[in-house]
């Protein structure tokens, strides 16, 4: 599907909802009937290329209610209603420090989930967990310790394979049981298997040394019946790679290997650094029980490979704990597609439902008001396909009469996306040419799209990156300030990406020549850092290295401000 259609497609509330309901109904039927499932998925899509799975934020499910009764050690303490059964914490969950605040319950709609047993305030640590198994991703192997996940410019590399790095001899020793088998393979073939395969090897090695722990993995949803045949075939091929990497005793029978791949696909997390940039992949079985919302009340952050779930929106007793599985800057339609394709459910969260209501325009795919002084989001017109040539509307903020020539808008936006793609291809080769293409893209989009439109955000991010590479701080700052404004529209006030964006903007400011920064600038920087810090204390906690770093930057700026004022 071309991007232009995505841009302009207006949601036909009733029919698309019906379609989605039908698809979900169909997927429920498939869960019960393995024989029909694959043909449905073949029909439904698509361009599945999962040979290089991106470790996602998250996970998925199976026939959940049925599965819940098989959970080892989880005791069903009786259904209080037909919809929800209360389930007490089992050994697995009691490992979590804060378990008295939480319990597992099961619902027809989303299977197992974690619920609050008391009110929880923003900033509170709701859960923390260490990985069952974790690997540093390929790009970061030389800068992150493969055992403790410490980031450093001075790591020691494994003298045998020279692929894997450690921060100390102790870390190398501790990781040896995991690394010894892959090390031989790296030496033999002089290249690494994909990150996902390396992680699965570690899971299987742990199973061999600690068989009871493997129940934690077996408890995860697999949704095997819902995977497409092409995906299952890829899993089968990757299983062959795994056979080459670990001892025979560590292997599972072929069908269990496929099941493991399905569980991994639905339950793996990206490990993120403080700035929310992925640097590894891991499985955290306890946290895998948390369901998704596009308006989550909790957020996942990491200290090295330890995962922390912190509350970002007040949670009331009996409310479900939720985190986000997708990129929230994407329009609802795309988020729902991703969730349906990967996690096999139709998202009906507060955010998705809100924009289905008449009169609520999602800025993520909106046009902008044609009045240059008005920034209102306008619901995009029907695409060309539906035969509409002109779209008229009235801006609800400035009351301007709006007239869009649909063909012209489609053409311009389509051209902007082509320019963007060209720019992306050139990005690592020729910054200046890429910059010229991104500027052209921006010029077209700025005239037509709302500032929080997904495509505008993408273009701005690319422009900021290139201007920073070129040390053109003035232009980088201009776009970064505007991006911050868009993030305020897109994200809740305690969302970590907003704090990281505020901090990045402050850093761009601080990159200016010292003499160019006056008191007014310093006050602005102080304001940015203050706000970033306030959010980070909630999302990452007071002790997180990034929180400390922002705090130190703030002190420096406050000191300088004092000196300049005197
Ligand atoms: C990581 S698992 C979450 C725990 C899962 N409910 C379980 O029982 O193991 C992800 C799966 O949970 C279900 N799920 C998560 N969020 C959901 C939501 N908002 N609505 C419906 N189902 C959801 C989906 O089946 C998804 O594949």
TrEMBL record:
Protein's UniProt name: SET domain-containing protein
Per its UniProt record, what PANTHER family does this chain match?
EG:BACR7C10.4 PROTEIN, HISTONE-LYSINE N-METHYLTRANSFERASE SMYD
**SUPFAM superfamilies membership:** SET domain
Keyword Zinc-finger recorded: yes
Segments forming domain MYND-type: 145-183
Instruction: Please tell me the species this chain comes from.
Output: Glomus cerebriforme
Q: Which GO terms describe its cellular component?
A: nucleus
List where Basic residues composition bias occurs: 1-13
What UniProt keywords are attached to this protein's entry? Answer: Metal-binding, Zinc, Zinc-finger
Q: Which InterPro entries match?
A: H3K4_H4K5_MeTrfase (IPR050869), SET_dom (IPR001214), SET_dom_sf (IPR046341), TPR-like_helical_dom_sf (IPR011990), Znf_MYND (IPR002893)
Provide any one GO MF term from the record. zinc ion binding
- According to the UniProt record, where is the region Disordered? 1-38
Q: Which residues cross the membrane?
A: none
Query: Does Zinc-finger count among this protein's keywords?
Result: yes
Q: Which residues form the SET domain?
A: 100-326
